Write the structure tokens for this entry.
Amino acid sequence: MRHGLGHRKLNRTSEHRKALFQNMVNSLIKHEQIQTTLPKAKELKSIIDKVITIGKKNTLAAKKTLFSKLQDKNSVTKLTTVLSKRYEKRNGGYCRVVRSGFRFGDNSPTAFIELVDKDFNAKGQDSGPTQKKAEPKSSEDTKKTEVENKDTKKTKK
């Protein structure tokens, strides 16, 4: 019989599974919607609901517990400030799983997992490393540097 066997193993070791869900929870908190396979989304739903419930307490002990689970200061801050206010009157069911067809490569069922009442502007925010943009140079500055470069080339000859 199958009594008390718990959660899906997803064909991974326990350390790999723990890291996978930690990364997925951080991504879901950051972007408020992610696309993944259906079994992973179903497992992630219970994890994110528990994390948001802890974040609604907004105490020091809750913040330390969240940081030990998530290992990301930005996620903990967003949970305790933004998401706790958004879900203060809701008693559970903070996310939904929406099936989205089958993946092209291996035909596995995919799904979107998203937070209920999500912020549509959060999707794609802070994705990847940001590069500091250089201030545009004025045409006078460009001409000066070109003249200086010519002068240095002449002196080298």
